[in-house]
Amino acid sequence: MSTPHIRAEKGDIAKGVLLPGDPRRAKYIADNFLEDPVLFNDVRGMLGFTGMYKGKRLSVMGSGMGIPSASIYISELYKFFDVENIIRIGTCGSWIDNYGIGSVFLAQGCSTTSNINRKIFNGTFCPLADFSLLRTAYLKSIALGKKVKVGNMLSSDLFYPLADDPKFENWKKFGIMGVEMEGAGLYTAAMRFKKRALMICTVSDTKTDERDMTPEERETSLNDMIELALDTMWEFV
Ligand code: HPA
Hints:
- By secondary structure, this protein is of the alpha/beta class.
- The protein has a single domain, classed as Nucleoside phosphorylase domain (Rossmann fold, 3-Layer(aba) Sandwich), CATH 3.40.50.1580.
- Helices cover 32% and strands 27% of the residues.
- It has helices at 23-33, 67-80, 131-143, 166-173, 183-193, 215-234, and strands at residues 16-20, 35-41, 48-53, 56-61, 85-94, 104-112, 148-155, 178-180, 196-206.
- A 5-stranded mixed beta barrel has the order 5-8-7-6-9, surrounded by 4 helices.
- Helix 2 (67-80) runs parallel beside helix 5 and helix 3 (131-143) crosses helix 6.
- The radius of gyration is 17 Å and the shape is globular.
- The chain starts with 15 loop residues before the first strand and ends with a helix.
- Hypoxanthine is lined by residues 91-93, 156, 159, 179-181, 204-205.
């Protein structure tokens, strides 16, 4: 049952898939968090693995960057491989005060600069997270003592917008927590195929903090987010 972008059999992929942008991060998760991981896809280097986590079968796969790339993999996972739950784990820029590097944002909804929904509705579609995934992840992140915020994100088509573009300022004025590049594609596909989705983002850069994450911060906050996503997914597979 291969698709143009995923060469695998239906049963090779679990009901729940963690979806980082970077395929090498998918391999890192498989190597460090899953037992007996098996590679199910390497078409275009978009590595996907299935293994065991705390006694249950889970998968992890890269999505690539941006809504067009991510939407291809997400649509094929939902439509052709019977995947029921996808949790995107990504990094984002923070646009709000007091949520600096290492904070966790749970995307309740994803606004977007993308055109994907502009042509198919006679109004503005609102891509939302699955509430049960969101609630579970929120309660688990509080229990872990994470600095977490739930709200609206921006999925931008541009990593490098024009400097000082006033339109970006408007997103900030309306309380958008931060910016990344895939969430609206995930939530739209989940709502279209009647499946569950959630996006968890770790803040990797902020408007006030010039510094980058240190390698240690990157590793620990990444590992925390991976564990939060795995433990949340565990409840749904
Ligand atoms: N913009 C878009 N995507 C991102 C960013 C950003 O500043 N940081 C991490 N992912």
